[in-house]
Amino acid sequence: MAGITDKQARALLSRAKGEGKKLTQADGTVPGLTLVATMLGTGSWRVRYYIGGKQKEATIGQYPTWSIADAREKAKKLRMQVDDGVDVALEKRKRKQEALSVVTVDKLAEEYFAKVEKGVALRTGMRPHTLKQRKSIHERYVAPLIGRFEASSITPAQVVNVVKKAEAGGKTLPDITLTHCNLLFAHGIGSGACTSNPCRDLKLSAIVGPQEPPKQRIALGAEELGNFLRELHKMPRPYELAVRLMLLTGVRINTIAEARQEEFKPDFAVWEVPHDRRKNRRHTTGPFVIPLPAQAVEWVQELLKLADRDEYLLPVNPIRGAGVRNPLSKRTTIGGWIDRVRNESGGTWRRITPHDLRATCKSWLSELRIDYETRQRYLDHALDSTVDQIYDKADYREHRLAAANKWLSCLNNLETGTAQENVIKLPGAA
Q1: Distance (Å, whole) CA 137 – CA 180
Q2: Contact at 8 Å (CB) between 373 and 383?
Q3: Is 26 helix (H, G, I), strand (E, B) or coil?
Q4: Which of 144, 250, 255, 384 shows the smallest number of beta carbons within 10 Å?
Q5: Dihedral angle at the C-alpha atoms of 335, 340, 345, 350, nearest 10 degrees?
Q6: Is the pLDDT of residue 322 over 50?
Q7: In what order do the strands lie in the sheet containing 288-291?
Q8: What are the residue ranges of helices labelled H in 314-394?
């Protein structure tokens, strides 16, 4: 029997559409190969066969995507399997189910991020801005290269390619990307999707070469700090007060950049930093309560007045923020003003970053002979001993307030240039 021709196939599709019903026509060259035309005028190739006395059929594909010649070739292979006792339609369904159950890297990441988000909601583990960063890293560097691959099939070489791609985005991104991949596949092992972690033996230095050493923190000495304090009036008042508050309390730049007015209780002379914005959250609960000396309370009251009805303590940069809150603009604004004031003042202190204010605070607390436990609690650092971290829940508030008053007195003396002979000059000071 001669096989069906393209002319006959097109005619069958046209007739099925015209009559509004399904029509079929056997090819004749391969047993069971049939063209099925629908009432919409589309067609598909199917192979009909018998297994255990029951008629079944397996779909090959659409016509004309599958040409007559291709359909016949595929049908011959399926008939050979049927002759060997294989239910080809059942096997195809099994393969589809297996494909649906395959965990790709993107699917693994979706599960991983869902787990991390639970920790964020419970205010444990990863911070919200870190989670946002990791999602961005995955979308930009991981997903395009290996996102669609089965997670259990990923090799170290593929991860290396991902990390190298991230290198073009910035010098810190390869490290963050490798860390993300490591945590992602560790989750895969824990969920049973992977049997091994392809990042286990990977070292960043082996992938992108030696990295620049971490920036050494700077603690301003007596003369430098005095010069710095005397020039702060050149900043806009909100940023001057913010810098003074950072230097006194030793808080991180994010802590003050994202501070809301509701966190400040001038009547109680405290600043309550919410637990979800504390970096030290593993062995802590509740807000970090910072006791404020009377002069610092005056700074806060002035900042609150300057902020007017804004939800946040500091104003949004009008150029970058354009009226929309942008914490990054606040951080860069503070750092930018520190650099600008230094340049205008002739560079009478070493170039510092906002985080160096924290290092200066910690160093001077040591020089002022504040005890170790109070210093650690002052900057919301964990104690060195694991046992102390777990069991020592004292917040040393009275001790911290006494330390703050002592440190503030020192800062005032340095700024006015009085009692210099009683101030210890820090090593490395200019």
Answers
A1: 8
A2: yes
A3: strand
A4: 384
A5: 40
A6: no
A7: 264-265, 270-273, 288-291
A8: 327-344, 354-367, 372-378, 386-391
In DSSP notation, 39-99 reads TTS-EEEEEEEEETTEEEEEEEEEETTS-HHHHHHHHHHHHHHHHTT--HHHHHHHHHHHH
Helix (H, G, I), strand (E, B) or coil at 377: helix
Identity of residue 386 = T
CA-CA distances (angstroms) from residue 307 to 295, 316, 325? Answer: 19, 10, 13
Contacts of 125 (CB under 8 A, 6+ apart): 116, 119
CA count, 13 A, side-chain hemisphere, 229 = 22
The 10 Å CB-count burial string (b at 16+, else e) for 95-109 is eeeeeeeebbbbebb
* Banded model confidence at residue 427, pLDDT cuts 50, 70, 90: very low
Q: Closest by alpha carbon to 281, among 117, 122, 402?
A: 122
pTM: 0.58
Catalogue all structural domains in the chain, each as residue range(s) with its CATH number: 6-100 (3.30.160.390), 105-208 (1.10.150.130), 222-422 (1.10.443.10)
pLDDT digits (tens, 9 = 90+) for 130-181: 888 999 999 999 999 999 999 999 999 999 999 999 988 888 899 999 999 9
Q: Are 354 and 373 in contact (CB under 8 A)?
A: no
Q: Give SS3 for 33.
A: strand
